[in-house]
Design a protein that fits this description.
Layout: H1 2-39, H2 43-52, H3 54-58, H4 60-81, H5 83-110, H6 112-119, H7 125-140, H8 142-157, H9 162-182, H10 188-210, H11 225-255, H12 262-297, H13 301-328, H14 330-338, H15 345-358, H16 362-377, H17 382-406, H18 409-433, H19 443-466, H20 472-493, H21 497-511
């Protein structure tokens, strides 16, 4: 009974955070819409987005791997040796990681003229010059990115999951306000500086939220054994994350050869992807990961397996209809969010094509995220790394082949298909890691989900044809609302216990 209560609390907490994430992502949408309306999709915005994505192309593997490994070690250290020792460990690691970020920042600034032409070989001379200048500015602020990752990791370790979302809102609001104040036709350099200021505010908010929850101690011992333990655990995660980033590098590499605005289309559609993954996938995986670690630290494998199986079925069940809407309603979604000002019909069509192929991968990404977190909690960071390497190899082949056949959408299709293959490989390997992991009890649920999805697709396609003469907003609201009612309504009628479980949690929260 106690185990069930703890498991329920995880998913109740996920619902609360989902609401906060939605608010944050809506503001993020407003930020992207403001940038799109003020700057459109041109060769200059291509250079801007390339520069903005540069830290997340070259160094996110560093931030992501260190923060993920840090959470595992910090939670274990706190449970085993107490809060004081845990905070000393965290303080030491923060200093070490910021030092690493500072060194990488200097390297990123000075080597920009070398790596930018490699990543975007299709850029013109003027584009390359602009992209290099903007990349130097962005890379110079990499310490802020690392600081954001590590401070968020501490808050998440303490199960204060709202913190990073609140800080994200501060970042987006800062960028929006500065962009509106500056007005249209400003330089890309000013836009880049506004983004850096946004990151600064994000870090400040995280520091304020940690006040009273965490005591920082200045410990200047970078070569302590704790640093070695962190790096040893983080290294396979780093390799895996870096390999995954190759997917994005390949996408931008290929997009640079397409028409002007192609790379911007990838970036705008990626922001829509982040909206979906941030609301549903990242929320649950972020909440459940510290719980995985805590269960295993206490040798409670029953609770660990129960939470893992529940997450593995509920998250894809919720994300599947969203994926269907993304594929069917891609053009209307892009039109509603971005089509205004300098973002014309051609930019809308280009971005919608990319989103159509990207939207199909949401379910696979959800499965990947839950299984990968389980591997990390089990302190097996090598298996996800190997799977990521195989997935990238497949993505390269598919993306290159399909980009020649169907254009820009082929790049997104390659990412989607490689995500599906990656999810399958991870599932095969986690079953080897947990021999008694049996999902056959969910076979009836999976059948009901597939049936409901098929009916939803048929309904949505018919509704879209009927509503074709109407505006994008009316069409999107009608098709998506009707489709969701159709999907979840069927699951409720068929008494799918997982959807009933989610429904009851929502009702309880609303009553409170």
């Amino acid at each position: 009974m106690l185990q069930k209560k703890k498991s329920d609390n995880i998913f109740k907490l996920s619902l609360i955070i989902t609401v906060i994430v939605i608010i944050g992502k809506v503001i993020g949408f407003v930020r992207d819409a403001v940038i799109a309306g003020y700057y459109g999709a041109t060769w200059r915005t291509d250079a801007f987005f390339l520069a903005q994505n540069m830290p997340s192309t070259i160094f996110p593997a560093v931030c992501g791997s260190l923060s993920t490994a840090f959470i595992s070690l910090y939670v274990s250290r706190t449970v085993e040796k107490g809060n004081v020792e845990g905070e000393r460990f965290a303080s030491r690691i923060i200093i070490v990681t910021l030092g690493i970020a500072f060194i990488l920042s200097i390297i990123g600034v000075f080597l920009a003229p070398l790596y930018v032409p490699i990543i975007a070989p299709g850029f013109s001379e003027a584009q390359l010059a602009l992209a290099i200048d903007l990349s130097k500015l962005t890379m110079g602020a990499f310490v802020l990115t690392m600081g954001s990752y590590m401070l968020s990791a501490i808050l998440n370790s303490k199960k204060f999951f709202y913190g990073s979302q609140i800080a994200g809102v501060a970042y987006n609001v800062t960028v929006i306000v500065i962009t509106l104040i500056l007005g249209q036709n400003q330089s890309m350099e000013l836009l880049t500086v506004s983004v850096i200021i946004g990151h600064l505010f994000q870090v400040i908010i995280l520091m304020l939220l940690l006040k009273g929850k965490f005591k920082f101690t200045l410990i200047l011992t970078p070569f302590h054994k704790d640093s070695g333990i962190l790096i040893k655990l983080a290294f396979p995660i780093f390799i895996g994350n870096f390999i995954v980033q190759i997917n994005h590098i390949i996408g931008r590499f290929l997009a640079s050869y397409f028409q002007s605005g192609a790379l911007s289309a990838l970036s705008y559609s990626a922001s829509l992807n982040r909206f979906i993954t941030g609301i549903f996938i990242t929320t649950l995986s972020t909440v459940i990961y510290p719980s995985f670690i805590e269960s295993l630290t206490k040798n409670d494998t029953i609770k660990f397996i129960s939470e893992f199986k529940k997450g593995l079925i509920i998250l894809p069940m919720i994300i599947l209809p969203v994926s269907i809407i993304g594929v069917i309603e891609a053009f209307d979604i892009v039109s509603i969010v971005f089509k205004r000002g300098y973002f014309d019909i051609e930019a809308t069509k280009l971005t919608a094509i990319v989103l159509t192929f990207y939207a199909g991968m949401y379910v696979f990404v959800a499965i990947q995220e839950i299984i990968t977190r389980a591997f990390y909690a089990l302190k097996d960071t090598k298996t996800p790394m190997i799977v990521a390497a195989i997935s990238v190899f497949i993505n390269i082949i598919i993306s290159v082949a399909f980009s020649k056949l169907i254009g820009l959408g082929g790049i997104a299709l390659g990412t989607t298909l490689s995500s599906a293959f990656s999810a399958l490989l991870l599932w095969i390997n986690i079953k080897k890691k947990i021999p008694n992991l049996d999902m056959r009890t969910y076979s009836t649920t999976i059948t009901k989900i597939i049936f409901s999805a098929v009916v939803m697709i048929i309904f949505s396609l018919i509704a879209k044809m009927i509503l074709n003469p109407y505006s994008e907003l009316i069409r999107f609201i009608s098709v998506s609302t009707g489709g969701l009612i159709c999907y979840f309504g069927l699951l409720l009628l068929m008494k799918c216990k997982e959807i009933v479980y989610v429904k009851n949690m929502i009702i309880k929260k609303l009553k409170k």
